[in-house]
Amino acid sequence: MNWRKEVNGPAGFKYFIGIVGNPSVPDISWSDEELEQIKALGVNMVQLSIAWGGKPADEVLNLEDMNADQRKKFKFRIGQAQKHGLRTMAQFGIPRMVNFNPVRPACILDPEVQQKYQKLLKDFMVSFPEVNDVMVYTFDQQAWLCSEYGPCPRCSGIPLDERLPQFLNLLNDTMRSCRPGTTLWWKPWELSKGQVGSILAKVKAEGFGLALNPSTSNEVYPFNDRSFYSDLGVRRFVQIAMERNIPVMGEFDHTFYKPLYLIEDYFPRLIYEEMNGWREMKGVVAIK
Known about the structure:
By secondary structure, the chain is α/β, with parallel strands linked by helices. The chain has a single domain, classed as Glycosidases (TIM Barrel, Alpha-Beta Barrel). About 35% of the residues lie in helices and about 15% in strands. α3 (about 110-125) runs parallel beside α4 and α5 (about 195-200) packs parallel to α7. The protein starts with 14 loop residues before the first strand and ends with a strand.
């Protein structure tokens, strides 16, 4: 697919992704009324869970969370999305840490870990054939990766860009073996500009998408701090992705989980300017 020719949708993006509820108000129902309100704002794709580190309302965060109750919840939400003509995207932290405190990552060079996530992801794709895309955090969302300077006998001395692209390709291939038209979106959280650039140059482009914040140096979500004009990292990532025909999703947050974010309710121009900043960059085909 040539993504550069595909940008023709709400607000100038192919995909306009929304979330029902937020970390501070997680119990919003996936009712017909709620989904129609989201749709009226221009949203044409919904994320199937809030997917926040603290797991508000016991929302799904990792593939390991998909028990019988969560599967039932996903089935209902997918059905509601289809009823209202909305695409769907799941979000997971992969691989989930073996131990949280102290942190012990699940090693992505371990064949057992690789096989585990092939199995879990394939089961998800087969169980929910209506889901269009999957977004993955490889850091945060209870996921973490071994450090090249750490004690892991497999990863010690091996830079992340020599390990992570193969794991992302494994996830991508697993998804596409079940459904060729799907996209694996990767959020490069907690990584340096150099790491992200090196990984982008090595990962397989087909079926792969990149999700970015408007700043590569900190968690800049809601404010127009001119990051788009001063943070060359963001622009460089978009350029690398565009050269490889990798679609980019721009992300910003408009929720109530931090008091400062309430300013957006009174200054909607901040929202407009940030969305416009993403739209101005060629290669950005989605907003979330």
